[in-house]
Amino acid sequence: MSISTQVTRLKNYIGGQWLESSSGQQEAVVNPATEEVLAYVPISNRADLEQAVAAAKEAFQVWGKTPVPKRARTLFKYQQLLHDHWEELARLITVENGKSYEEAYGEVQRGIECVEFAAGAPSLMMGKQLPDIATNIESGMYRYPIGVVGGITPFNFPMMVPCWMFPLAIACGNTFVMKPSERTPLLAMRLAELFAEAGLPAGVLNIVHGAHDVVNGLLEHPDVRAISFVGSQPVAEYVYKTAAAHGKRVQALGGAKNHSIVMPDADLGQAVQQIVNAAFGSAGERCMAASVVVAVGDVAENLIDQLKKAADGLSIGNGLEQGIFLGPVIRESHKQRTVKYIETGEAEGAVLVRDGRKDTAYEDKGYFVGPTLFDRVTAEMSIWKDEIFAPVLSIARVETLAEAVELSNQSPFANGACIYTKNGSHVRYFRENIEAGMLGVNLGVPAPMAFFPFSGWKNSFYGDLHANGQDGVEFFTRKKMITARW
Ligand code: NAD
C-alpha cells in the first residue's frame, strides 16, 4: 500500500498533487469488521472543489486533443497495473467495505473489465459518413469529448462503480473530478495513483473527498459539463434534477428492490444457491441483490425450507479470513436501521423464518447482521416497499406467474429481476411483461459486463444514457455533423 493511503488524514488529488483540504472538517473511515479507524477523510469545501475543476479544465485543453490511440495506450498500461495490484486492491476493498475477499477479488475484475472496454476508444469513438447525401454533397458525424465530467460514487463498490465512470470518460478525451463515498475513500486514491503511474497527465483525473458540499459544487459548477452519479434513490433523483437544472447531462443510478420469481418447475438446488448468493453476498449491499423472492404455486414450502438450511450454513465474519461468506454491513447506523426493519417486518405480520439478529458466531466487534428470512411478505409492508440494503430477504407467495410479474411491477424500483424455471414460455412471458432493465434466467446477479449498458428502469435510474457500453460512449461524447459540397 502506498504512502498516501497510509497516512491518517487523507488528501485530495488535484492537478497531480496530493493536497490537504482547506475545510478543516473530517470523518473517520472505519473497517466495518473490526471498527478500527483506518484513516480520516476530509469533508472538503467548495474552495477545494473549485481548485479541482480548474485543474481539470486546464488539463482538458491538452488531453481533449491528445490523439485517441495515445490516450488508449495509457489505458492499456493502466489495465496492466491494475492486474499487477489485483490482490492489494481486493484486500483494500475488503478492509474498507467489509465484503469477503473473494467478492472483492471479483469486484477488481469487474473494474479491470471497464478499463479494457475503455481502451477500445479508437473504435468506440468512430463517427459515420455518407459520401452522397445529394449530388456532390457529403455528410459525416464526428465525436468529441465534452469537457470536465463529475463523478459521485457509493460505498458498496469502491472499485467497480468509479471504474464505470472515469476510465471511459477519460479514454473519450474528457477530464474528471471524482467524489468517492466518504465511507470508502481509500480504493479511489489507489485507482488515481496507479493511473498516474500508467502515465496519465496531471489534472486529467482529480479526487475531492467529502459529502454534500462537494456534490452540490459539482452539480452547480458552470465548467462541469456532465454528472455521472451512483447511489441511493432519493439522492439520485436530487442529483438528476439539480444537475439538469444547471444545464448538465446526467446519468443517475439509484436504489433497487429486485424480485426473484421461482416457478414450480425450477431446479430448486440451483435456484437456492443462486438466491442465497444474490441475497446475502456482500451483506445484501448490492444494487443487484435479490431482496424479494416470489414463490409461485406449491414451490413455497420446499423452497423456504432449503433457503433456511442454506442460510444457516453461511459463515459470518471478517471478510479477510478464509472461507467467510458474509461480512458486516457498512456502519453501526446501517446495522441499527436493518434491525429496525426486522422489528417492523414482525410488527407488520410477516413470518420471521430466520432471525439474523441472533447470529453470534463472530467477535464482539463489527457491524454484523446474519442472514434474515421473512415469509408471507405482502406489498403493503414496508419490508417489501423499501430498499433495506442488508442481508434481509423477503418471500412473497403467489399462485401464478402473471401474479408474480404483477407484484414485481408494483415496485417503483426496477433495476433487475430474475426467474428460475426450465420452461421457455415462462421465460418469454417474464421477459415480455416484467418492468425491469436487467433480467436473469436461472442466475442470481444479472449485472451486465462493461461492454453492455447497466440498464435500470423507473426509480432505479434517472437519465437517458446508461452507464457503460455504447451508452457510456454516447454519454461522454458530443457530435459534430459536417455537410460539405465539393
Ligand atoms: P448514498 O446515496 O448515501 O451516497 C452516494 C453518494 O452520494 C456518496 O458519494 C455520498 O457522499 C453522496 N450523498 C449522499 N447523500 C447526499 C445528499 N443528501 N446530497 C448530496 N450528496 C449526497 O448511497 P450509498 O449508501 O453510498 O450507496 C448505496 C446505494 O447506492 C443503494 O441505494 C444502492 O442500491 C445504490 N447503488 C445503485 C447502483 C446502480 O447501479 N443502480 C449501484 C451501486 C449502488
From TrEMBL:
GO terms for biological process: inositol catabolic process; L-valine catabolic process; thymine catabolic process. The active site is at C287 (nucleophile). Its EC number is 1.2.1.27. Pathway: Polyol metabolism; myo-inositol degradation into acetyl-CoA; acetyl-CoA from myo-inositol: step 7/7. Keywords: NAD, Oxidoreductase. It catalyses: 2-methyl-3-oxopropanoate + NAD(+) + CoA + H2O = propanoyl-CoA + hydrogencarbonate + NADH + H(+); 3-oxopropanoate + NAD(+) + CoA + H2O = hydrogencarbonate + acetyl-CoA + NADH + H(+). GO terms for molecular function: malonate-semialdehyde dehydrogenase (acetylating) activity; methylmalonate-semialdehyde dehydrogenase (acylating, NAD) activity. Residues 18-482 form the Aldehyde dehydrogenase domain. InterPro entries: Ald_DH/histidinol_DH, Ald_DH_C, Ald_DH_CS_CYS, Ald_DH_N, Aldehyde_DH_dom, MeMal-semiAld_DH, MSDH_GmP_bac. PANTHER family: MALONATE-SEMIALDEHYDE DEHYDROGENASE (PTHR43866:SF4). Homotetramer. Belongs to the aldehyde dehydrogenase family. IolA subfamily. Catalyzes the oxidation of malonate semialdehyde (MSA) and methylmalonate semialdehyde (MMSA) into acetyl-CoA and propanoyl-CoA, respectively. Is involved in a myo-inositol catabolic pathway. Bicarbonate, and not CO2, is the end-product of the enzymatic reaction. This is Malonate-semialdehyde dehydrogenase. It comes from Paenibacillus rigui.
